[in-house]
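Consider the tokenized backbone below.
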């Protein structure tokens, strides 16, 4: 005996299952990023981030406009963040927030460009990625950089989907080229000084 399932109900069940899976992936990613967050003391670069964030406003503006221009947004956010606490764990928690916020963006990009399964697999792989976990536990701008690098292609996918009604190669090209452009701009500004 076969049971007919209403397509609308099937779609709701699928959406509910996808949402539950994504929440589980984000919780797993959060857990992996907060475990041992405060066990190591700050290393020199993390300490310099904290020192920059603690400068008085005049010195802070002077430093980020003349010397430390690469991570201005991170330093400004860290400065605001540290107004609520300044323990090593709390300072690193800002990076954890951006790392965890990157997981749904990976899902969204994969789901928009391909399908929900690809989005979930991508988010799961990033949630357990050792490098992403490691750099999420540092008081540096690495997590903010990965978050902001995905934010632009995700917004391009959403806008393209809303305008045309379907995702096509134009969206793939737009997302890919923007990700490459963002990465190249960042790497070139970082690498020129080392060449």
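A designed sequence for it:
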């Amino acid at each position: 005996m076969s049971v007919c399932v209403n397509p609308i109900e099937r779609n709701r069940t699928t959406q509910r299952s996808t949402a539950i899976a994504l929440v589980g992936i984000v919780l797993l990613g959060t857990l992996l990023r907060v475990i041992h967050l405060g066990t190591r003391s700050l290393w020199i670069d993390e300490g310099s981030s904290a020192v920059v964030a603690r400068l008085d406003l005049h010195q802070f503006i002077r430093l980020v406009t003349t010397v430390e221009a690469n991570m201005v947004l991170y330093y400004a956010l860290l400065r605001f963040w540290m107004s609520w606490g300044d323990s090593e764990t709390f300072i690193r928690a800002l990076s954890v927030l951006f790392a965890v916020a990157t997981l749904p963006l990976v899902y969204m990009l994969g789901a928009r460009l391909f399908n929900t399964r690809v989005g979930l697999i991508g988010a799961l792989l990033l949630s357990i990625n050792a490098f992403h976990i490691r750099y999420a536990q540092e008081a540096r701008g690495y997590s903010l950089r990965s978050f902001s690098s995905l934010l632009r292609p995700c917004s391009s996918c959403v806008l393209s989907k809303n305008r045309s009604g379907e995702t096509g190669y134009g969206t793939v090209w737009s997302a890919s080229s923007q990700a490459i452009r963002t990465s190249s701009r960042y790497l070139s500004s970082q690498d020129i000084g080392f060449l």
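Confidence is low (pLDDT under 50) at residues 180-195.
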